[in-house]
Specification:
452 residues, NADH Oxidase, Nonspecific Lipid-transfer Protein, Chain A, 3 domains, 5-stranded mixed beta sheet, 4-stranded mixed beta sheet, 18 helices, 18% strand, globular, binds cobalamin
């Protein structure tokens, strides 16, 4: 049965969207409304998207994120996922102001596309909400996931690209120079799109050799923490850390010893305009997409013109003391200056803390660590987790599995206080709120793997 559109902006007001009218044609089945894919596609492209595809919720790779998505948007039946192309040449400029301006313009475009499309869909009686995957985030969620939906996985499932070594979804034409967006739809799609069969990543490793923190490794490992701390110096945890630097500074000269005037000015820009990132080099140097053939024909030129300026750039690299990033930057880029900062990380629940462990794990610091840890939290949160560290890898499992080398029993709030450097371990142990069974050296080893 076709449902005729209910409300539409007036043709005569000059603001009528040509594709908008057709979106109102929907077919209703016992499973709900089946949406017209071509019409939605046209609507999204007319709003500025450069590529569009569709996925439903039954994909196994979405299973982990589904409860979170449905908690917020319980009526979601499918996603329209889209790509907004960014200007390659601006991103390739070593001048941060130019590159950041392009990323922030792209972010505005994604939000604008969402705004236009969702309004049109709403006008035609369809429930839809956009997820930009950009700021604002859910800053108060305590389950360890501040974003609503994993756009990279949605995009891969929709066949818009495949994640490369730089962890970016690489579009077959536009390569890494894209932002993603998604629109949750209260309707199903007759023929959802399927993942691509081949990756546009050509394994050139340029992202790995250019990454100032070593977060991207040639073997495919991605160090979330090192990337985040440097790149997001002026966002999220970096902001928290800056505020702490201000509050902890004794006076103006003490603050200036910790933060240069140039950095303070950069903060002013981020707060007054759009928050800057400190690095997008892994996007800039990536030759994937329609440029791959010319890159393969002349790798040397690409290296000289695009890669070299990033590698040679004298700049600050933000890193936590005794982290893999600090070691990497000092060893590989001695002409760059490592600025030691705190991570700004302050977990508010042990559940979130445990979930984040694999993302924060520093495999370089974990050399020589081999132990099985049992964490038994009681009090406000009841959580039992096993963490195994060995061969510079980490495994986190729910429940108490195997025989522990170190068993940690703790009141969840006391543990968070200790981790957040607000409570002292000996004092909490004296009060019986934290108990260790096994060598305390193993706790020290554990801490070494997660410098903060
Ligand atoms: C968190 C985040 C970051 C973090 C972490 C980066 C990362 N690789 O995850 C930081 C701050 C460092 C970051 C930086 C950047 N980001 Co960012 N970021 C996100 C965000 C919000 C979530 C990404 C995510 O799922 N991260 C989890 C990590 C671990 O994912 P992953 O390893 O890459 O992928 C695996 C995991 O997702 C894993 N997985 C899923 N759940 C879990 C849970 C656990 C516990 C574990 C271990 C694994 C896991 O399965 C995946 C496949 O193996 C998305 C927006 C969104 N809502 O999706 C944008 C997004 C990924 N960022 C984007 C961009 C462009 C950037 C930057 C270039 C900065 C910028 N200018 O915006 C840099 C590039 C850094 C890089 N090389 O990754 C774009 C990427 C576009 C594209 N082409 O793919 C996105 C999609 C935003 C958007 N709207 O377009 N980002």
């Amino acid at each position: 049965m076709a449902i005729e559109g209910r409300v539409h902006r007036d043709d005569a007001d000059g603001d009528f969207h040509p594709a908008g009218k057709s979106v109102t044609t929907q077919t209703e089945t016992p499973m709900g409304v089946v949406l017209d894919k071509d019409m939605l596609d046209r609507l999204c492209r007319a709003a500025g998207a450069d590529d569009v595809a569709f996925v439903e919720l039954d994909r196994p790779r979405l299973a982990g994120d589904l409860p979170g998505i449905l908690r917020v948007l319980p009526w979601t039946k499918s996603f329209m996922v889209f790509v907004r192309r960014l200007s390659r040449h601006a991103i390739r400029s070593p001048a941060r102001s130019l590159s950041s301006a392009e990323f922030t313009a792209g972010a505005h475009d994604v939000k604008e596309i969402i705004h236009k499309v969702v309004r049109d869909l709403e006008d035609s009686g369809l429930r839809a909400v956009g997820i930009s995957g950009l700021f604002p985030f859910e800053s108060s969620r305590t389950d360890g996931s501040p974003f609503i939906a994993p756009l990279k996985i949605l995009a891969e499932e929709a066949g818009l690209g495949v994640m490369g070594k730089n962890r970016m979804v690489l579009h077959p034409r536009f390569g890494a120079d894209i932002y993603l967006g998604a629109i949750a739809l209260d309707g199903t799609i007759a023929a959802p799109d399927q993942p691509l069969s081949a990756s546009p990543c050509i394994n050139c490793n340029l992202c790995a050799v250019t990454c100032p923190t070593g977060a991207i490794a040639k073997d495919g490992h991605f160090d979330f923490s090192s990337c985040m701390i440097h790149n997001y110096r002026e966002k999220v945890g970096g902001f928290v850390e800056w505020i702490h630097t201000i509050t902890d500074s004794r006076n103006r000269s003490d603050y200036r010893r910790r933060v240069s005037d140039a950095e303070t000015l950069s903060w002013w820009q981020s707060l007054g305009y759009d928050a800057n990132t400190h690095c997008d080099y892994c996007v800039a140097v990536c030759p994937a997409g329609d440029e791959a053939a010319s890159f393969l024909a002349n790798r040397q030129r690409h290296f000289q013109d695009i890669v070299r300026p990033f590698r040679e750039k004298a700049e600050l690299v933000y890193a936590v003391p005794e982290s893999d990033a600090e070691d990497h930057a000092a060893r590989v880029f001695p002409h760059k200056t490592v600025r030691r900062i705190g991570s700004g990380r302050r977990p508010t629940s042990v559940v979130a803390m445990m979930r984040m462990l694999p993302l924060l794990f520093q495999r370089g610091q974990a050399k020589g660590v081999a132990a099985r840890y049992h964490f038994r939290f009681r009090g406000k949160e009841t959580v039992e987790t096993t963490v195994v560290i060995g061969d510079q890898r980490i495994l986190v499992e729910s429940g108490l599995i195997g025989r522990a080398d170190l068993e940690i029993q703790a009141d969840s709030e006391a543990w968070l206080g200790f981790v957040n450097k607000e409570r002292k371990l000996p004092w909490e142990m004296l009060r019986g709120r934290i108990r260790l069974r096994g060598s305390p050296h193993l706790l020290k080893d554990f801490g070494r793997c997660f410098p903060a």
